[in-house]
Amino acid sequence: MRTLYAELNKRFPLGELTVQREDLGFITVEREHxxxxxxxLRDLEGFTHLVLLTAVDWMEEGIFQLTYLLSDRKKRRDLGxxxxxxxxxxxxxxxxxxxxxxATYQRELCEMFGIDFPDSPGVHDPFILEGWTDxxxxxxxxxxxxxxxxxFTHRAGRETNDPAEYMKKQLYPDGA
Amino acid sequence: MVLYQPDRSQYPSQKADxxxxxxxxxxxxxxxxxxxxxxxITGNMSLxxxxxxxxxxxxxxxxxYLHRGFEKLxxxxxxxxxxxxxxRICVPEPDFNEYCYAAAVEELAGIVAPERADWxxxxxxxxxxxxxxMMYLGGQAGSLGQGVIGxxxxxxxxxxxxxxxxxxxxxIYHMFILPGxxxxxxxxxxxxxxxxxxxxxxxxxxxxxxxxxxxxxFKKRTVGVGYxxxxxxxxxxxxxxxxxAAGVVKDVRKDQPYLVYPQLDFExxxxxxSDIFTRADVRRRDVLVSIDLVRQIIAKMPxxxxxxxxxxxxxxxxxxxxxxxxxxxxxxGEYGYYLVTDGSGYPRRVNVRGPSYTHAVALLERLxxxxxxxxxxxxxxSLHTYxxxxxx
Lengths: 176, 392
Prior knowledge:
The structure holds 2 protein chains of 2 kinds. Chain A is an alpha+beta fold. Chain A has 5 helices and 5 strands; from the N terminus they run H-E-E-H-E-E-E-H-H-H. Chain B contains 12 helices and 8 strands. The longest helix of chain B is centred in the N-terminal third of the chain and has 28 residues. Chain B is globular and about 70 Å long. Chains A and B meet through strand 1, strand 3, strand 4 and helix 5 of A and helix 1, strand 6, strand 7, strand 8 and helix 11 of B.
């Protein structure tokens, strides 16, 4: 993984490398270099399989981390590219022309995190949620419990345990 | 193999953005919804089909009927509280969720599960694979009107659920593979009862072969239908039996071996024609491989030894900042968990990568075009998709 990183670093300005396993590494990349790097990895390095595209919400730092996880099956290695984008007005260039299946991931990210991918096919079409008017629900500030309490009613006659307290009582009855 | 070549002159022209210029008021086209309640649909999803005569010219998939927000729920739960809910992401084959989640937590927490636990995990995953294929075979045959196959495969699946019940205490959601190991070892006499079950499955598979795969109607409806061009495999992220039926040996168990697979003797099953029949046949033969693997595991596994690593107090368990991806080969292809931790007692992000995510949306929408309406159900089932993986 370090050899690959050194080779890539000659061509692209790369951020830090995290070697998680011998066959799995993560590299931070500036957004303007992502597309060229993806094409290079796909066409010249054998990373032909887009495993997943997802986002991590670092709300405290005001950024979204987009993770493009690629796989090179022949050499048995995976590489995750981390792209940090601003949380406010989050938007990212589409890569659906590099991998058609990316359009599905981008559509979901637009709906769940509010990250726009201009020109991605059907990116603004509802994917899972229909008629959703609240903030994108996978953002950290969306409070699932508050939403559930306001939207649904509790069924009468059912005892509700606080999960943390209940587990503590079950697992550590002596109060460890 | 002769593939169906449609007469494109009858089809709508394309607009500048690539979408089809379909005028529904012309009377030439019809919108047809297949699902969400429809016998020809796998699980809770629907297909919005535009048909011209009895041929599909455009398709859109609609999911979201079973969205329970698992990934979001896990962000507000401790690592051990996530363990009992991950299995609920996939009903027919829940164990991969447990394994991938447990392995991801173990890796980031620096924990190693005992060897005996790895053997039992592999056993459970192979048992689950057989069960998942039983559901598939019933569905595939049912989509073409062969209801009896589903009754047979449901019967033997039920026998395997009995084995699951005596091993884990549960039939569907086992909640058995947790971070650090597994909950228990094999009960007394388990190997003998498992052997009886495997023999019954083998007998049933022989019947399934005779009645389903040698059936003229089944062949006529599936050979050459639903062809996946091997060139589409990488652009569309196709994995598992769908890729192997196209002649590409994609199997995580061999490509990036995990658990005790390096110690087991098996070869991935492949086909070459990449049509519905070949995909079904690959899965039928895969059942036989899994049966052999279960026998190998029971014969080779250590009979004694620890089953769990000592965990820290799970109520105050904090895992250092990091991220990882763990994958396994489930019955439908590559199943994986991307886990991000931030040093707190809760996961920062859990992303579930199910094979249906790519197979049931982008790939299906492409494959359905030009297909006869009556073949849509068979084609969809042949991709072996489970919608809950899409809308975790």
